[in-house]
Amino acid sequence: MTRYVMVVDLRRCTGCQTCTAACKQANGTPPGVQWRRVLDIETGVFPNVRRSFVPVSCMHCGSPPCLEVCPTGATYKHDDGRVGINYDACIGCAYCAIACPYQQRFKVQRAHFAYGSDPTDAEAIKFDPARLGVSTKCTFCSDRIDRARETGQVPGIDPEVTPACVNSCICSALHFGDRDDPESNVSKLLRENRHFRMHEELGTDPGIYYLTATDN
Amino acid sequence: MYVPNSSRVAPWRQTYWDWRAAGNFIFGGAGSGVLIYAATAPEAMPILGPIGAVLVLCGLLCVWFEIGRPWRALNVLRRPGTSWMSREAWIAPWLLAAAVLEFSPWLAWSRIAAAVLAIAYLYSQARILNAGRAIPAWRHPRTVPLMIESGLAEGAGIGVLVGCLSAPASVAQSWVGWSLAGLLLLRMTAVVWYRAGLRRDGAPQNLLRDLSRCVPRLLTLDACATAAALAHAAWPRSALSIETAAVLAVVAGWWWKHTIVVRLSYNQGFTLPMTPVRGAGVTGPGSRPGW
């Protein structure tokens, strides 16, 4: 089996938001909708203060709460672990948004663009009316992953079939690959480093791992 | 003071479900409660069937106004295997049919059928809310009895009010006061139990703060309603006390449902179980902002 996951090395992330910008460019999300963003979390009390940058997006959970509640079947799972949405079936009830503990579902009712009601040339290319009034979220750049099956390339290794955010990361904090392949880049990272997953206690089996320290 | 630019880390109030979603729980719950009351009341009141149906229909209409693609609404029927919203949608047409048939005096069995379907509908509604795993105020298991109990109390309240208008003699009996007071006491118990559960299991600070403001108001309204219902149980000839109790039971229930859906709907927020190593240092303690 294949289970595509993302590994985020929190030691490396500088909070530059390049992944956020790359996602917006690749997926043409409207203003206010960020399928990927980087949280800026400050912890501790002066003088022992730490600042952490935590990239978040759809976790492509193994047991997705959004899938369970969806009344239309619009939310579905690929056999490689990715969670997708069929925009033609979604009724926009936002039940999935209510169920997602990662707040990674978005619904936009009307088209709006960065500079008003008319799209820029770049926005016009990416604009998809099927996304209005329905739930949207990160797809792990599914079009690229699907292409890998045709070309034989390896997601996470070959940039053409790797999510845009991972390709764009300037400090190699983001990694993508098959968790079930013991020789994959992500499996090695998970073996060698201490890691956690967000809200794991809710039983969602999230597909994004955060590295915090070397395991030694 | 440094303010992080990603302000949405601590739990914030969801905005996807607003008064329209609350309307489904308010009208659907009360409508189901009316149909259950109609089946349990000793004297038949056929008018309660259509009233319950209209209330349930109003709730469904609220949802229809809420969804992004209303002309695809029938897709909601596709996933009864896993989704409580789908199950609610499957029950609704049968419930409406049975409730409307209740108006026909020769179809007495429809009163029982409508009540059974109403119980299923009310339970589905409670489970819909409970499946919202991102919202600590909803996902707590004690939400289910609370929503069911509130629907029963609201339904009884409406049933009593309709009785006062259409058949005053049927209401001028002490069991009416006792039963309404019992339902209100159960609702008060459910609310207190629910709040204690949230406090025990942990919840966002802003949720607990809002809860500590809202629950006393509901308890006050319910206590007044209970007192009025008990007064009616003692002196069943006076309609004013039971009317007051019924109105308060409905108003308090509807206000509470609006509160739980719209106001107490803080999400999970984000958690950092440990902070990462920087350079040659060690990991630091984690953070759960807003909890």
CATH superfamily of chain B: Formate dehydrogenase/DMSO reductase domain
Regarding CATH, which class of chain A? Answer: Alpha Beta
Tell me the major beta sheet of chain A.
4 strands, mixed
- Summarize model confidence as the mean pLDDT of chain B: 93
Structural class of chain A: alpha+beta
What proportion of the residues of chain B form beta strands (DSSP E)? under 5%
Strand content of chain A: 15-25%
Short description:
Chain A is α+β, with helices and mostly antiparallel strands and 216 residues long.
3D architecture notes:
The complex is a heterodimer of chains A (216) and B (291). By secondary structure, chain A is α+β, with helices and mostly antiparallel strands. Chain A is 23% helix and 24% strand. Chain A is built from 7 helices and 10 strands. In chain A, a hairpin with a 2-residue loop joins strand 2 (36-45) and strand 3. By secondary structure, chain B is mainly alpha-helical. Chain B has a single domain (19-266), classed as Formate dehydrogenase/DMSO reductase fold, CATH 1.20.1630.10. Chain B is built from 10 helices and 2 strands, in the order H-H-H-H-H-H-H-H-H-H-E-E. Chain B has a two-stranded antiparallel ribbon. In chain B, strand 1 and strand 2 (284-287) form a beta hairpin. Chain B is globular and about 85 Å long. The two termini of chain B are 21 Å apart. The chains are: A alpha+beta (216), B mainly alpha (291). At the A-B interface, strand 2, strand 3, helix 2, helix 3 and strand 10 of A face helix 3, strand 1 and strand 2 of B.
